[in-house]
């Protein structure tokens, strides 16, 4: 059977239309896919919780300067006993007291012209006592009585009491979850009135934690960890992106 010219024409036309239609369908699908991919919203959610410290640490640094190293050690040993008796008499458990190792160095004689010689003139030595306890009120009260030790001729400096939260890791986990929920709420609020709906979470990135005194607004790019305040606020942030339907 011979194919007529008009049949060849219609066959070619059909193939051409099919190609055009297929290209249209494919390009439309690609556009829809790209459109769907671009329909995302990015937000930052946050959550905060006030917490009370349940652990305290207080450090006393004491030092001496003597002609011989032996005299330095004798003085510090005497001071250590005085500090220990002071703490125990004020209700601190002996197990909560830790005396760190003694450190020392030589002081060399200096000539009138300011040049230092190799001749040892005296020795300096220092030591630290660290008190750690869950009895926060007791440590706070004792830290205010440090003048009693000074009146016993102990050359000392005392740091401020540091306050910690022992279950901070559990609180952080909870805060991340709350911050993620807050991020979704913010995303829903942003598209409200556009007939859009929030879909799945595409990505999420946890920010640094800010542990600050209550009512403080201080933040740091590397995170802030306050140890000076008994009452603290833990702030967590989560940056997330959601699909918009």
Unreliable runs, pLDDT <50, ≥5 residues? 23-37
Strand content: 35-45%
Helix amount, in percent? 25-40%
Strands, total number: 11
Number of H- or I-type helical stretches:
5
What is the molecular shape? elongated
CA-CA gap between termini: 57 Å
Biggest pleated-sheet summary = 6 strands, antiparallel
The computed structural class is alpha+beta
The run of helices and strands is HEEHEEEHHEEHEEEE
* Rg computed from alpha carbons, rounded to a whole number of angstroms: 36 Å
Mean pLDDT: 86
List keywords for this structure.
5 helices; 245 residues; five-stranded mixed β-sheet
Walkthrough of the structure:
There is one protein chain. Helix content is 37%, strand content 36%. The chain is built from 5 helices and 11 strands; from the N terminus they run αββαβββααββαββββ. It has helices at residues 5-38, 69-89, 136-143, 147-150, 168-190, and strands at residues 40-52, 55-66, 97-99, 103-110, 116-133, 156-158, 162-164, 198-206, 210-213, 224-225, 231-244. Strands 2, 3, 4, 5, 6 and 7 form a 6-stranded antiparallel beta sheet that branches. The protein is elongated and about 85 Å long.
């Amino acid at each position: 059977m011979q194919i007529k010219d008009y049949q060849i024409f219609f066959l070619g036309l059909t193939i051409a239309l099919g190609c055009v239609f297929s290209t249209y369908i494919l390009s439309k699908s690609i556009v829809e896919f790209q459109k769907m991919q671009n329909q995302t919203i990015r937000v930052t959610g946050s959550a905060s919780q006030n917490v009370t410290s349940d652990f305290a640490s207080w450090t006393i640094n004491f030092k001496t300067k003597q002609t011989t190293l032996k005299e330095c050690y004798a003085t510090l040993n005497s001071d250590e006993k005085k500090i220990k008796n002071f703490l125990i008499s004020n209700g601190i458990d002996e197990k909560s007291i830790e005396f760190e190792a003694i450190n020392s160095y030589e002081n060399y004689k200096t000539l009138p012209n300011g040049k230092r010689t190799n001749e040892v003139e005296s020795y300096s030595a220092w030591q630290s006592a660290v008190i750690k306890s869950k009895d926060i009120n007791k440590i706070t009260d004792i830290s205010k009585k440090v003048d009693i030790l000074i009146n016993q001729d102990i050359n000392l400096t005392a740091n401020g009491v540091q306050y910690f939260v022992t279950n901070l890791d559990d609180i952080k986990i909870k805060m991340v979850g709350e911050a993620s929920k807050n991020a979704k709420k913010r995303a829903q609020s942003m598209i409200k009135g556009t007939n859009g709906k929030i879909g799945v979470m595409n990505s999420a990135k946890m920010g640094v934690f800010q542990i600050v005194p209550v009512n403080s607004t201080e933040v740091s790019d590397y995170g802030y960890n306050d140890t000076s305040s008994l009452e603290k606020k833990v702030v967590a942030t989560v940056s997330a992106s959601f699909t918009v339907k």
